Every structure is written in structure tokens, then in C-alpha cells.
Amino acid sequence: MKSLNTLFILALLMALAITLSATSSENEEPNFLRGTSRFLSQKKGRVALACDKYPNICHIKGSAGPNCCNNKCVNFFTDSFNCGRCGKKCSFGKMCCDGKCVNPRTNEKHCGKCGNKCNAKGSCVYGICSYA
């Protein structure tokens, strides 16, 4: 019985050590976020932070982007629903590269993906730089 109690206490101490070692010592959140919930959900009793009131929330590591649009953090350079500005949607088949809607199947500066430039001699055909 005594060895069972010792084993139980040892297991509790190991669980506590693992929990303490898993917590990060880095505090990357800004001062205005201290004391609020980490999960920013809108459950009762929790504070929901909105980027229209707190625009710096979009600059936190892990945010979807540095810009605030319709109370959501977005990136105006890559978001196809907010390309270049809030609410500007790229049409079907186009993607947002550097804040502009482009067709990756034909655009020579963004052939197949953003930033993929074709040679001066080649052209972009179906998203592939041709060298003919």
C-alpha cells in the first residue's frame, strides 16, 4: 500500500513537471491583452477582442494578417477575399498576389503561384513557364 502511494505521488510530480516545462517563458502578447482569455472566443464570461477596437491584435504572432477588415485580421497582399483593400474579391480562377488579382495561368510575373516569374523569352501557359 505504501509503494502504491509513493507511485501515485511520483506520477503527480512528473505530471506537474511536464506541465511546467510545456509553458512558454516568452510573453509575446501586447500589454492590452494581459489578463484576457487566450482563446478570444465569445463565450459568456470571456472578453472578445475585436480588431476594430484593438487594431494591434492583428500584429500578434499567429494572426491571419496585419490588416483589420470587417472585424477580422487579414492580409491585403494575399487574401483573395480582401485583395489590396477590404472587401475586394478576386474573381473565379484568380488569386491575390502583392495586393492585385492575377490569373496564375497566364500572368508572367506570377505564373502558377505568386512571385514565379517567367524568363524574358518564355511566356506563362496554363501556369507553366514555356521556353519555346
Please explain how this structure is put together:
The protein has one helix at residues 2-22; strands at residues 67-69, 72-74, 95-97, 100-102, 123-125, 128-130. A hairpin with a 2-residue loop joins β5 and β6 (128-130). Helix content is 16%, strand content 14%. With 132 residues, it is an alpha+beta fold. The protein is elongated, with a radius of gyration of 24 Å. The protein is built from one helix and six strands, in the order αββββββ. The strands form three sheets. It has a two-stranded antiparallel ribbon. Strands 3-4 form a two-stranded antiparallel ribbon. 8% of the residues are buried.
**Rg value:** 24 Å
Strand elements, count: 6
- Give the helix/strand class: alpha+beta
Low-confidence stretches: 24-29
The arrangement of helices and strands along the chain is: HEEEEEE
- Main sheet overview: 2 strands, antiparallel
- The proportion of strand residues reads 5-15%
Strand order in the sheet with the most strands: 1-2
Number of helices: 1
Helical content (DSSP H or I, runs of 4+) = 10-25%
The shape, in one word, is: elongated
Name a few traits of the molecule.
single chain; 132 residues; alpha+beta; two-stranded antiparallel ribbon; 6 strands; 14% strand; signal; Stigma-specific STIG1-like protein 1
Write the layout of secondary structure elements.
Blueprint: H1 2-22, E1 67-69, E2 72-74, E3 95-97, E4 100-102, E5 123-125, E6 128-130
Antiparallel strand pairs: 1-2, 3-4, 5-6
